[in-house]
Structures
1.
Amino acid sequence: MTRRNFISSLGALFLAGCGGGDMAPASASDGSPATAALPVQTPALTSVPTSAPLPAPTPTPPETTPPPPNNTFVHPGLLHTQADFDRMSQKVKANAAPWVDGWNVLIANSHARLSYMPRPQVAIYRGSDGVHAENYALLYNDIAATYACALRWKISGDTTYADKAVAILNAWSSTLTLLGGNSNVDLAAGLYGYEFANAAEIMRSYSGWAATDLASFQNMIRTVFYPINHDFLIRHNGTEVTHYWANWDLCNMASIMAIGVLCDDRAMFNEAVDYFKNGAGNGAVSQAVYYMHPGYLGQWQETGRDQGHNTLGIALMGPICEMAWNQGVDLYGYDNNRFLAGAEYVAKANLIESGNAFYTVPYVTYNNVDHVNQTAFATGGQGDVRPGWALVYNHYVNRKGLAAPYSKKFAAQIQPEGGGGNYGPNSGGYDQLGYGTLTCTRDPIASGAAPSGLTAIASQGQVVLSWWGSAYASSYDVKRGTNAGGPYTTIATGINDLLSYTDSADSGLAAGTYYYVVISQTPSGASLASNETSATTAVQLLAYLALDDGNGLTATDSSGKGHAGMLVNGASWAGGKKGGALSLNGSDGYVSLPADIVSDVADITVAAWVFWKASSKWARIFDFGSGSGHYMMLTARGDTGFPRFAITVNGAYGEHAIDGNAALSVGQWVHVAVTLSGKTGTLYLDGNPVGSNPAMVLAPFRLGGTSQNWIGRSQYAADPYFNGLIDEFRIYRGALSAAQIAALM
């Protein structure tokens, strides 16, 4: 099948929307425009066959940073800047593929025609409220038409399309006053808010759109859409935060960001940026990219649900990153390119490897407040096509010079990307604006960047390395040294697919500290080395609070690592098991340890002597985390009445836990310890194993940054403080054996 025929065939493809599954899809009877009934307009720029001779591509250097931020917004500055429109126009006029192929798809779309007639409504309903009929298809079709006509104007210069786009914007801003329905109204506010704001942002530079009409549209979108977006992110309709899938957060984040730029509201823009980085819900990047597998394959949060929703996550987070980039904020690169890890995972999982067989990807169990307990990769909708991959590929490869092999392959497979109306008549086909081949394609980068983002995770005497690759690289070499800065010895060559390497005894690895770099082999020779990273394979004391200080507010760390604790509120000193001890009053006293104390630790041991004065469920011996979504904790008594260790990156319902089988005694000294070694976790009381779990796939480093590392206090405000004494508090990098735990006593 040719590429041109392929894109035409997509009209019959149904793509699931991002709803919660509680509503029927829109049908052809919902008032959406009938494409066959619309007359074809003479395009402002004529179609060009794909066989036309192409000018030689002009390589471009990498963009190492986004445009610098300033106190004012760049306009147009959401999905597209003026430089982007200049590029599109030049490429289409030069008949250059694939831009012209994307242009031909645009001008063939029924929404991109002067005959299109808007149907503004006073109220839009998504989801049945038992009173009003759903009519949201009217809105998403009109948004698709506004965006398509706006693109035609900016690329061709034909102002008749600008006038059509403005007419649609004005019709809605003078009419719409309400979004309603059931909880699915949050999807309408998010999806259509971000899309409508993008269309308006393009048109704000058109002299034919009166300033009063722009102000009217800004007022409408700020007062009708934004309040719903904001309320959803802070309340989630009163549900526990893991109830909603990532896409619900993402569309509302996208809407807030887009409205912020359109309305020149920096606080609104920052709200979206802050939620992307630190939000409690599943749309924040650390939750959306739920689990990082070796080689930076980032398991997406909806992977165990279905692939239609999984691909939508990429089609929503990508625009958030692009809109931020165009305002000088690099969310693409945040947390070591975490979004790219998610995109590569989703792309690989939805690509055919050979015959009818898809690539396989690793998977770990996902659970939430609704006990979905997804234990396997979901194949429903596998291979679904959504536009959005051209944006991902062109940023990471042709802007940054990185390798994104699966995003690249997906983008090539589905180009030229269409827009609303090219992917079926239902809402899922309009959940993204589309046309990425036309709008996002960039000239090839001149040369790839050096390998980057190298990390090393030491576990069970091995070191697992992962890194980001380079555009044009054919393979990678791993080098290891015993001193920072080298010299290094090459320990692996010819790595060319999954960018990961496990260093082990087979390569001469022993107990100690090692330093690593990676280089790539390219057509022009070996690249510069990546960043250096290190790993320690020996068991190492990371913090030792003997708690013999006796006065002051500082608990000295004798490990030499500088991890002293600070006594807070009702924390004081008393006699202990060995010398002095920490005394906690059970009402507000605790000790705070430095931020990120275990952020680079995989295998771990935490041990202490405790004297529990008053039994209370969920009182913490320690709790390290960043809130009630990300933490690892040891409680003296859980629901079973016994001690419980748990670690989670998804709140209480996503905990991976070790439940003890013996109670922690009250009124006497008890030695407690917990170890994680690979996937095996063990809980000890007085040197005896009292609980274990062989499927602990989480480790401390997966918590990310932790600013709330506490002894005696919980991440949950309602939990009681520890009431009693604590002595000899130790943290080790590495898992001590049972004999070593006994020796600590």
2.
Amino acid sequence: MLNFVTADMSSSVRMPLLNTGTPESKRQEILNYFSQTFDLYDSLFDVLDTDEAWYEKAISLRHPLIFYYGHTATFFVNKLMAARLIDSRIDPDIEAMMAIGVDEMSWDDLDDSHYDWPSVDALKAYRQKVRSMVSEFIMTMPLEIPVQWDSAGWLILMGIEHERIHLETSSVLIRQLPLSWLNNNGRWPVCPEVGIAPENTLVALPGGKLKLGKPYDDPLYGWDNEYGLQEADVAPFKASEYLVSNDEYLTFLNAGGYDTERWWTDEGWAWATFVKARHPEFWVRKEDRWCYRTLLEEIEMPWSWPVDVNCHEAQAFCRWKSEVTAKSIQLPSEAEWYCLREQLDTDLPYWEQAPGNINLEYWSSACPVDRFRTGDFCDVIGNVWQWTSTPIDAYEGFRIHPYYDDFSTPTFDSKHNLIKGGCWISTGNYGIKQSRYAFRRHFFQHAGFRYVESTASGRDTINPYETDALVSQYLEFHFGQEYFGVSNYPEACAALCSGLMANSPMTRALDLGCSVGRSSFELARWFQHVDGIDFSARFISAAVELQKNGKIRYFTPTEGELGDFQVASLKATGLDDIDVNRILFTQGDACNLKPKYCDYDLVFAGNLIDRLGDPLLFLESIHERIRPGGLLVLTSPYTWLEEYTDKANWLGGIRENGEALDTYSALKRVLNQHFDEVQPAVDIPFVIRETARKYQHTVAQCTVWRCR
């Protein structure tokens, strides 16, 4: 194993188990882990030899390294303050300036921000103050075994693992700096093994049923996206025996890989042409030969080492490989990678020595792709990360961690693909089986890939979070929790409709003003066909997303710009057993419906009439849509507003010939022409959440009419 500065900095210090030992022994174990991590991080930054290395950006879309040196220390202070576990800051200016990093939003989204960064000496002094404070906190904090994610110990582990993440991401930035700015101090040695690249072959795997995710009582620290459960049924497939080597990738490059648009996705080709990519990031052209950039050196091209590429380049290689082999070659899905990983029955921190080039146990670089074998495959873990075709998404049961509410959810956008397996510098949580990290597809990490021959499809789309404020509000209204003891309104209305039908036919129902669809889904329990119609395309889009995928994610504000990410789920609301194909969601105008919308046993117009431009026109014609004996169910709080309905068109809440006219009276006057009232009007309350401390508590009146 490597030994950086002192013996206690060795990578032999493992991430602590959460469920062993006593509080006293666990405090000491966490302190050792914290100290080793702090020293290791400092050791990486010791290679920066000039002011330019500290203050100039390695790439335009990331902060300079001075930021990352301070950022991981401020994380401890900021999180402890947010959790109210400490009551004073160390340096408010540094803790504000270095609080938030950069997610590389787009390859053409230039960041021209300027900062008045502190000096290196000032940050070194600051880090030492943080180290002293955190060390003292660890030894005095309340702690119970097992360490659970709402405890102070979990927050400290979060800070430690956060620094280990930036150990790796900072090493990528250092690898992109000019060598003249760096000091190769011998503490980060390059693998001396090179050799000839092996010929890659495809090896069959049986696939099978997998359960992805881990329970909340797992003994290893995890980020929130690791928890929950996702079942996957993986068809048999073949995977490449080795990671793609520099030599194998050279064949793609020589075939015109960077000049042939058809081998790239649209997004990938746009990136490649914008940045004028001609070869992998860490390949260096020297007249008639290729060289290779490691962390601190430029060496002759090690053709047997894995190629470092971003996801776009890996995808383009696979498309080229498919064309030349006439096989379905692609990147593995997350589930397919787990089929590979199942062949390795150990995990950090349980192994005596790493079964791959990982955890800094061998070198500070990649190594030959045939160096570490597990069964039929090499580099199941380690060497370089392995790109997958899977955009990161939450597992069922996902919960946002309250101490770090924006760690995972911003990446649930279909634009961040998972990388699996770790690399030579992956330590801590980065190195465990269940870790889930995702980067934008143009992002460079110490990442390469292996390919699979697979028939799997549908890999590239997931549900992004719905951030439209009104749509999110109604998703919460329809599918969120109940407040103040008031029952779910769409569910209650649908149940009332069902009860009214008695022994009547339940063939066709029309849900007018269906919003995001809960009442339509509920009506589909009983009706053979349900048309859900709303004027808002945004509402209909959300309903269709739920119908298609069974869930949709959305954001609910708590106060100001803060909020929580939620999941509207058919399964969680007991609607997963209905036939969703019974429902047809369509955008439409209740006052101008197409003729085909007719012959209904039930028309439900929930909270609709006081949002129509011409409610009288609607009421005078709705009987044409209902079969004789069918029902019209209206609910409304009668909140007449001129932004929806000209005052001249209000049904009620007005004076007519000097006398007060309420909406219920107007309804009876209009509907008595074609309907009989079935029962007295009843009130149905509902609550709409606006923020954590503001709610609309409203009472709608429900009237029921039978068509003559």
3.
Amino acid sequence: MALRGDGRLNHDLLPDEKGPQDECGVFGLWAPGEEVAKLAYFGLYALQHRGQESAGIATSNGEQILVYKDMGLVSQVFDETALNALTGHLAVGHCRYSTTGGNTWENAQPTLGATASGTVALAHNGNLTNTADLVELVAERYGAQRRGELARGNTTDTALITALFTGDDGHSLEETAMEVLPRLEGAFSLVFMDEHALYAARDPQGVRPLVLGRLDRGWVVASETPALDIVGASYVREIEPGEFIRIDQDGLVSRKFAEPKRAGCVFEYVYLARPDTSIRGRSVHAARVEMGKILAQEHPVEADLVIPVPESGTPAAVGYAQESGIPFGQGLTKNSYVGRTFIQPSDTLRQLGIRLKLNPLREVIRGRKLVVVDDSIVRGNTQRALIRMLREAGADEVHVRISSPPVKWPCFYGIDFASRAELIANGLSADEIASSLGADSLGYISLEGMIAASNQPASELCAACFTGEYPIELPSEERRGKHLLEMPTMGNPDDGLHSLTVGAGGAGALQHP
């Protein structure tokens, strides 16, 4: 985990090197008699890898909803005092990486809004593609003068969903959701609640994971199965694409708001999800080991040792070693604590680059022909620095193997890659990339091999970042983008859609009640 400019964490090994950024984690539970805020805290702790910019929890005691959220990691945002104040039998939690709307306190989740029948607190994983259309729909239904989160400077697609959940007089939140959800396009795994019930919904493509679990005295909904494990919930099933559920004192009710058109994100298997997660019955760890085995079949090489780039490359490296018969070894030691400091590295330390995070085991590397396995290459700067370091440590040869195909296209469904112009695989062949990196050879797994390792049909997966074939239609370029709602053309200070720049945390809270 590496230090970003704002002092929080991502998966990069070089300062200022931006790799693929995880999207968000959502968690919700209905559990009378339990300490729901603390359960939500631990659930979010298990989902921290999906977003490290902000965290929040909302709870309800049946009469009112309380929300506590701030910038930072789950462990930085919450303490015992905050959690003890969040009482009730219902909770919704969120940890965020920004995909639509900037990294500001105003954009932290869960969002809060008024409805025709009460209040809604909402957490969203994914990214909508028809945001511009939804801006116009909100204006059409509720007027140009914005209210709620939008009026307080929230510039996310999540705030637009919250605004649309206002609903018509006399309508329940469930009735409003069943009317609004079919109008949303793109990726959305939603967990939300009013004063009395927990709700969840998943887009018809099922781009992002969402699972249902059972407690002795309640229910849990979460982005990934480890969040169920950590709170002692048993796995029941996935929330189906196009499905809406309600959980309250009368039990669980399921409704379909759209026909499923499965297109789950294959990059969840490659990188995004925790290795101990299961997606559609397939262990992510097993899928990554299988990717390594297929990689060894497709790109064999004579070598002395297979080493992973910790930690993301480890399962695939194990698979490569098993299939090739080349011994597996730990050639790199990772400093787990660098990146957890808010002290910025000096220019001298920046020049050391990757050594802040990894250090070679020289006695293991010296005089050896190495196979170095990682999950993906984005810009290539990390791999270039790593290869240079391995050669300085005495490696005779360095052969790079990547357990995903070349990343060539941006994601519009909840992953923030570097821009297309910055992706090293655009315009360069594998041999040219190997030369650029200083590697003796480079091999990517084939698209077919990666998909086979997932055990899912190709027709039910989204691989757009590798192929450029998007399963959900995209709007024109001027009607999409991370900062769409912060553009002057999409709003102004009077209608609340223009970004209101205020301080984060307590300063923002004082200015925005």
